[in-house]
Backbone:
């Protein structure tokens, strides 16, 4: 017996599957390449001068900085995702202009917080904040290159202004760039104009310096509010949190402690938050990388985690959102965007 309700339900399911397939195609655009290639590129504006924020930075050295502030609890933004727009992006469409080559998955998650990728694969991302540092960033780059692994760097605007060669080294080595504000304030204590300046001027400077306009943003201290999210959405930036925090910035941090924490907490889809401004982090890296490789982990980038999870979600949605076999062995759909509270650490 077929009720009108069940007919409608059938139509709705059919429509959802169609949208999901479109999304899957959109998420697999050809620019979905490794490391820096996955980022939107643009021609540097050769003569544009670097602009300084009008709210000057405190003169404290960056070595004293640390993400010590606990992010306030806030509602998730997953329900605000503009997925319909992403689903209509034709796959393989050539970029209309330099610098606007965004994948559907990145665009769909702009303004959202990402703390980890899918746990269904043994992939992990190392991320480095607060640089570029004049001497330590090149050391981190060398270690990563020797190990042959990708990573993400979240650059601070005033550090890029001071050390443009180190910023270029990171970019030219193929690592994935994100921005981390101009001078590392708690953005939730700034007005909208200042938040915009902190984000946009750093994006502009990184683009002028490296030729790459990042699509990833890490808020200093993990502090995010609705204003930060709105501006990140406008600027096509995904807000990158983390799922493993070895507290490499804390006093008393040592290479061995950092290594043990990361290796001990390692999980599929993990995003590890570290700092390329810290000496103990450099001590920790070679052993940490060796241990993770020995445990079967593959290193990747945040944009790759996002692309892969989007494809996985689309495949799940295309199957009706239910695993056919059912039963207790069926994997659960796992949210890509989770709150800081759920991510532990902070
Ligand atoms: Zn930081």
Residues:
């Amino acid at each position: 017996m077929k009720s009108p309700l069940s007919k409608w339900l059938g139509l709705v399911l059919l429509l959802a599957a169609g949208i999901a397939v479109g999304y899957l195609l959109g998420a697999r655009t050809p620019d979905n390449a490794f490391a820096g290639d996955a980022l939107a590129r643009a021609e540097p504006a050769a003569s544009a001068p670097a602009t300084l924020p009008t709210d000057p930075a405190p003169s404290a050295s960056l070595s004293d900085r640390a993400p010590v502030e606990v992010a306030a609890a806030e509602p998730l933004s997953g329900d605000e995702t503009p997925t319909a727009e992403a689903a209509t992006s034709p796959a393989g469409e050539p970029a209309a202009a330099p610098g606007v080559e965004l994948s559907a998955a990145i665009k769909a998650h702009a303004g959202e917080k990402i703390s980890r990728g899918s746990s269904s694969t043994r992939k992990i991302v190392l991320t480095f904040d607060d640089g570029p540092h004049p001497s330590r960033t090149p050391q981190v780059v060398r270690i990563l290159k020797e190990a042959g692994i990708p990573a993400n760097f979240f650059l601070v605007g005033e550090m890029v202004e001071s050390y443009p060669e180190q910023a270029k080294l990171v970019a030219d080595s193929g690592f994935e760039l994100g921005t981390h504000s101009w001078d590392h304030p708690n953005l939730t204590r700034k007005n909208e104009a200042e938040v915009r300046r902190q984000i946009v001027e750093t994006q502009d400077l990184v683009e002028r310096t490296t030729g790459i306009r990042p699509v990833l943003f890490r808020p200093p201290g993990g502090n995010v509010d609705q204003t930060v999210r709105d501006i990140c959405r406008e600027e096509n930036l995904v807000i990158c949190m983390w799922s493993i925090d070895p507290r490499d910035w804390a006093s008393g941090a040592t290479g061995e402690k950092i290594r043990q924490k990361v290796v001990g907490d390692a999980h599929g889809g993990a995003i590890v938050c570290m700092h390329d401004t810290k000496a103990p982090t450099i001590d920790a890296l070679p052993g940490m990388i060796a241990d993770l490789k020995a445990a079967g982990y593959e290193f990747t980038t945040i944009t790759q985690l996002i692309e892969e999870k989007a494809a996985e979600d689309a495949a799940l949605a295309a199957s009706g959102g239910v695993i056919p076999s059912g039963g207790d062995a069926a994997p659960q759909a796992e949210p890509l965007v989770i709150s800081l509270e759920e991510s532990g650490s902070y």
